[in-house]
Amino acid sequence: MCTTDEKLNICLIVDDGVIYEFNKTINENSIIHTAKSIEDILINNNAKASKIKNVYEILIEIMQNILNYSYGNIDLSDNRKEATGSISLSYKSEKDVYLLQTCNLVDADQKEEIKDRLYKVRDLDDKQLRKLARQKMRSREDNHEKGAGLGFITIARKCSEPIFVEFTDIGNKIEQVIFKFVI
After folding, report:
1. Domain segments of the chain as ranges
2. What are the residues facing 17 on neighbouring strands?
3. What is the rounded distance in angstroms from the CA atom of residue 3 to the CA atom of residue 84?
4. Domain topology for 8-182
5. pLDDT tens across 48-98, in order?
6. 104 neighbors 84 (Cβ within 8 angstroms)
7. Contact 90, 35 (CB under 8 A)
8. 124: left (phi over 0), alpha (psi -120 to 50) or beta
9. Is it the case that residue 44 has pLDDT exceeding 80?
10. pLDDT band for position 145 (50/70/90)?
């Protein structure tokens, strides 16, 4: 179970050894700083350019999702927000994959919508995902003030395995949600 205090926990692990770890409250500035820091670490460790790009883009997308949709996110002045959650990035050398895992809290009412959106994309191939993205952009069926509803499609196209999600009821109509993305 993850903890969600006032900080965002991010940890980078290679084959069970932590090589990078820090805590931050998630906001627009920390999203950019965190993604850039992790990108720099991957570049300095000679990661493949395609993996770096995919990790970077998925990290940005999931941090924006935590910021916008987490239970208890805080609206600040000037239309800005802050939120809490945890993120870990590990590398499995035997498979040459990165595992990006997130944990945060959501309203129980969001659980079915998250599952529905995820299950619509999790078993589609890249061609089917591109087609679905074009359809959504043309129809604007999932457009909202925070985007076009393309987040899971974008992430699924960059993952090498289906996106994993797990919910745990923690009471008071709040769910802990854990996502795992294999890149």
Report:
1. 8-182
2. 14
3. 9
4. Heat Shock Protein 90 (3.30.565)
5. 999 999 999 999 999 999 998 899 888 887 778 899 888 888 888 888 998
6. yes
7. no
8. beta
9. yes
10. low
Distance linking the first and last C-alpha atoms of the chain: 23
Instruction: Report the alpha-carbon distance of residue 151 to residue 136 in Å, rounded.
Output: 11
pLDDT at 102: 87
Extract the runs of DSSP E, i.e. beta strands, from the chain: 8-14, 17-24, 74-75, 81-82, 85-92, 97-107, 164-171, 174-182
Q: Record the pTM.
A: 0.84
Sign, CA dihedral 139-181-55-86, equals positive
Phi–psi pair at 36, nearest 5 degrees: -65, -40
Calpha distance 151→57 (Å, rounded): 10
Q: What is the 3-state secondary structure (H, E, C) of 58-98?
A: HHHHHHHHHHHHCCCCEECCCCCEEECEEEEEEEECCCCEE
